[in-house]
Amino acid sequence: MASLTHRALRELVMSFGGCDEYFTEMISAGALVAGGPLEKFYLDSQPKPELVVYQLVGDDTLTIVRAAEIMNRYPSRGIDINMGCSAPFIKKKGGGVAWMLKQDQAVGLIDILKRKSPTTRLSVKMRLGVQDDPEDLLQFCKRLKSAGLDRITLHPRTANQKFKRRARWGAVQELKESIELEVIGNGDIGTFIELKEKSQGPWDGVMVGRAAVQQPWIFLWAQNLAESRLSVDLEETDLKFLHLLEIHQPKEFFISRALLFFSYFAHNVIWHHNLYTQLQKCTTRKEIEYLWREYFVDNPEERIKLRPETSE
Ligand SMILES: Cc1cc2nc3c(=O)[nH]c(=O)nc-3n(C[C@H](O)[C@H](O)[C@H](O)COP(=O)(O)O)c2cc1C
To answer: According to the model, what pLDDT value does residue 311 have?
Structure first.
């Protein structure tokens, strides 16, 4: 997720036991090929590169192929092409979900990428499409598979739905049952219970987005349902995140990325609205830390978050 799934968040999730694999934020193929000074931060796949999937976003075949060549010099679990982003500034230029409207070119792109680097695990993240047309989606996926695609992550909403309506997980099942290809489902997993339930579905895996930012411990809580009394120290966690962000991200990104993270994480506390309004005025790490410390001085009972009891 753009500006969110960088190394600092990854390490925070890992500090709670982690998950099976991590996607980078979408990396602009054009910027990577141009070789800007910040690209090294986007390409940082440490501390467990074998679990990190680089995601590329771009609108032009040649640029994406060149960017993938650069990525292939770094250790990773694979490369993912973003064919799902519906943000207007990406889609208008022909990137993200717009690839689903130029299927011949999309298939050609996968074909070239696979031929150039047959051992790279190649995946695509997509939405249902611009329209909800299951047959069109299936034929597109079949063609991508024939071109060499190894897996698909499906966020089952149309481009225009953005985050409206519930993700239609039935579409993930339909796709999985219609194609011999790894299919990962994504969308609206909000709690550790939902993660556990969805993990048992007929697909090959699930991807968690926003909930992993709000609850970096979600994987731990979902995996250990039998264990009682799991808890997390929220104050320790927000301080840890700030520390990781400072050491792993460029200075100029610090405040904007901290605030984006806290726009999700702050939902762990009752007075998040007030707190986040204050946080938005911060311009330094010290000010952010101060607000969090003050919050728990005023609301000490909220500092430790207990996992709700489950029936297992
Ligand atoms: C702030 C934000 C940034 C995102 N950036 C990306 C991105 O860079 N690449 C991508 O494939 N999806 C991106 N997404 C979409 C998510 O990966 C995911 O498909 C969507 O949020 C639904 O999953 P969730 O309900 O688990 O969050 C982003 C979503 C959000 C909210």
So the answer is: 64
The count of structural domains within the chain is 2
175-201 confidence digits (pLDDT tens) = 999 999 999 999 999 999 999 999 999
Q: What is the mean pLDDT of residues 240-265?
A: 98
- Tally of helices (H runs) and strands (E runs) in the chain: 15, 9
Residue type, 264: Y
Cβ of 188 less than 6 Å from ligand 1: yes
47 C-beta neighbours (distance < 10 Å), count: 12
In short, whether 95's Cβ falls inside 6 Å of ligand 1 is no
Question: Is the same domain home to 184 and 292?
Answer: no
C-alpha distances (whole Å) from 312 to each of 194, 198, 250, 306 are 14, 16, 44, 16
Tokens of 190: 């909000």
Please give the distance, rounded to the nearest whole angstrom, from the Cα atom of residue 297 to the centre of ligand 1.
34
Identity at 223, one-letter amino acid code:
Q
Asked if 160 and 301 sit in the same domain, the reply is no
Q: Does residue 259 belong to any structural domain of this protein?
A: yes
- Mean pLDDT in residue range 217-222: 96
Domain with residue 155: its CATH number is 3.20.20.70
Q: Is 27 in the pocket of ligand 1 (CB under 6 A)?
A: no
Shared-domain flag, residues 78 and 148: yes
- Ligand 1 centroid vs 230 CA: distance in angstroms? 28
Say what the pTM is. 0.97
pLDDT in tens, 124-140: 999 999 999 999 999 99
Indicate whether 15 belongs to any domain. Answer: no
Q: Are residues 173 and 275 in the same domain?
A: no
Same domain, 39 and 95: yes
Ligand 1 center to 60 CA (angstroms):
22
| Rounded (to 5) percent helix, strand, coil in the chain | 50, 15, 35
